[in-house]
Amino acid sequence: MRRSGKSIAALLMDQKVAAGVGNIFRAEVLYRHRLDPTVPGKQIDRRTWDALWTDLVGLMQYAVGKGRIDTVRDEHGPEAQGRDPREDRHGGEVYVYRRAGQPCLVCGSEIRTAMLEGRNMYWCGRCQRRKRAS
Predict the structure, then answer these.
(1) Cα dihedral sign for 22, 119, 129, 99?
(2) Rounded to two decimals, what is the model's pTM?
(3) Cα–Cα 20 to 30 A to 58, which of 18, 22, 24, 120?
(4) What is the 3-state secondary structure (H, E, C) of the chain?
């Protein structure tokens, strides 16, 4: 990863880099860390990668235990924000995945989508500007 000019979003989907991440977890972990999905892997420092990986492991363990993918922190959940729970066949509360055109749960900007290596990528252009974990 440290030698790659491919984006962090592309690298997270590369099974040689991070097996099993998948499209939902990719979109959500990048959002949770406010990382720009287009940042080249070679610009991702060790601290940032460790933070991403630790979060991914926790999110995936939670999903296996609950049988659904929930990535939204409590302060952005339906009860805290006074909104209806998300209804989607994939289940779970998410920040950006399959929410293109809808408002960001944090800043209200429109969630964006684009194709990246044959997969839909989702992100918030306002919240996801960082190049490393804070």
Answers:
(1) negative
(2) 0.91
(3) 120
(4) CCCCCCEHHHHHCCCCCCCCCHHHHHHHHHHHCCECCCCEHHHCCHHHHHHHHHHHHHHHHHHHHHCCCCCCCHHHCHHHHCCCCCCCCCCCCCCCCCCCCCECCCCCCEEEEEEECCEEEEEECCCCCECCCC
